[in-house]
Specification:
Layout: H1 2-40, H2 43-55, H3 60-69, E1 81-82, E2 85-86, H4 88-97, H5 107-110, E3 115-117, E4 127-130, E5 141-149, E6 152-159, E7 163-168, H6 172-177, E8 178-183
Antiparallel strand pairs: 1-2, 3-8, 4-5, 4-8, 5-6, 6-7
Helix pairs in contact: 3-4
């Protein structure tokens, strides 16, 4: 009886070894295929392709607007560019940067980019610039147009008192502070 058990164990060991060799050769072949695929497809490019496939459904301005809207309700933080705190130019900078459009980080420098346009010609995705009564009388605030309804312009921006919010240009404060609109896309 002991001899039969010993023989069965030996047979099992040899058959296991044979199986391991087959598995190992199969794994090697599989690894080669995977390696070849990884060599051919750069991970960054693969991510960009997935990112592009998602973004092709919407227009570029719509994607930028949707990106900016994810920060709604985020508190104001001077120099902030994250969900833990955001300032007005940080919101615009990050929203455009997410779609490979690099703008300057400061609102007065952003106002030097793109083409100045009259309010009648603005579209979603355009930028509104404001002078909010600072001592130097320079542009110090920026907002992104997200909708135009009944000749009124809705924009998203970050305020010191309420953080990232949407406002309407026809509100007294914003209409008085408005300086210019620019098309950067």
């Amino acid at each position: 009886m002991k001899q039969i058990i010993l023989i069965l164990i030996i047979i099992t060991c040899f058959s296991s070894c044979k199986s391991s060799k087959q598995d190992k050769s199969k794994r090697t072949t599989s690894s080669r295929i995977i390696t070849k695929q990884l060599d051919v497809v750069n991970t960054k490019d693969e991510f960009k392709n997935i990112h592009s496939a998602e973004t092709n459904i919407l227009t570029r301005p719509e994607n930028i607007i949707n990106y900016a809207k994810q920060f709604e309700g985020v508190r104001y933080k001077w120099g902030g560019t994250t969900k833990s705190g955001m300032d007005c130019s940080g919101l615009i900078f990050e929203s455009f940067r997410a779609y490979d459009i690099l703008l300057p980080r400061i609102s007065r420098d952003m106002a030097k980019r793109g083409k100045k346009i009259p309010l009648k010609a603005v579209n979603t995705g355009d930028l509104l610039f404001f002078k909010t009564g600072n001592r130097r009388n320079t542009i110090n605030h920026v907002g992104l147009i997200i909708a135009i309804k009944n000749n009124n312009i809705q924009f998203i921006h970050a305020t010191t008192s309420n953080g990232v919010i949407t406002s309407w240009l026809n509100e007294d404060y914003w209409l008085k502070a408005f300086f210019e609109a620019r098309h950067v896309l």
